[in-house]
Amino acid sequence: MSKGEQTRQRIVARAAPVFNTHGYSGTSMSELTKATGLEKGGIYNHFPSKEALALAAFDYAVELISQRFAAALEGQVGAAQRLRTIVQVFADYLDNPPVPGGCPLLNTAVEVDDSDSPLRERARAAMTDLQRLIGATVKHGIASGELRPDADPREVAAIFTAMQEGAIMLGRLYGDPTPMRYTVAHLNRIIDSLVCAHP
Amino acid sequence: MSKGEQTRQRIVARAAPVFNTHGYSGTSMSELTKATGLEKGGIYNHFPSKEALALAAFDYAVELISQRFAAALEGQVGAAQRLRTIVQVFADYLDNPPVPGGCPLLNTAVEVDDSDSPLRERARAAMTDLQRLIGATVKHGIASGELRPDADPREVAAIFTAMQEGAIMLGRLYGDPTPMRYTVAHLNRIIDSLVCAHP
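^ inputs. structure came back:
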């Protein structure tokens, strides 16, 4: 990796928590220079605009999320077990977010949902990938006979995503893990109800 | 109402959609002067700071939400019916938010969850009131014998709130009502499951 590429990656890694904590419009160039230890010109050497850096920081956050799911799911066999693992990865966001400041998907989605912007496109794509991971797990479980054939992969994906992002919001607002505990228990009961009864 | 008080209320009503759409840190004084039709000095005549106006705008949004729930619940008898009404009030946010820009509680909670600020206190209080409305409805239903005695009012309140705020986020991100439709159906099934079976 060239020195320039290393600097670029360091800027992104240091900017991501700032954007995720303060929001894109709430982040000033002076906060970015402070976090990266570079002058404004040093940042502009690598990114043409604050928005370009914001996009790179969002992509970086999404990559960390993907790695986290991949690592947790490695070696997990069976749809129900994999769904429980996905639920737990989300639950861990409260104590240990992928990037400081909470869930980058939730934060970005809420901030950019009023405007058509490249960030909104990125947030949609990342949220769709997340729901596809859940939906594909349900589909595989139906195909293997582990889950009930009437389970609806898209419905499960939407319900799990809505509920866990909402629980992250509540947990962070109150600094209290209780809403997430209720959510994890509820989603695990849903998973139980999706498993075929084998008499 | 004095002319000054009328002007103050007009500023708040016009500022609330701006804050709810762009966020508190994303809203500039020039956007506020444009929305209110006043000069900066005219706004500062009534509010000592942008933050003071933001607090008043949040309180105004919460008041509109309270009125909406009160109007929908008027004359609704029975805990299950009242819970279904609460679910539907939330579902209507997508097409018809209490203030343009989505759910003010969700937007504010996500924006301010990293800092201790008066706005975070307000967002917590409003989210708690909302959960108390749900929890009290469950409690009354248990007391009247309509709902199962093992229903947990706090759990129901947290799950309903997390799921509907998450569904509002998804619905607005995609401009698609499907996640909210799944959510409404799921929450109505939960309500059905809370009702005592009377053989």
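Residues 57-194 of chain B form a domain with the Tetracycline Repressor; domain 2 fold (CATH 1.10.357.10). DSSP finds nine helices and no strands in chain B.
thumbs up if we can close this ticket
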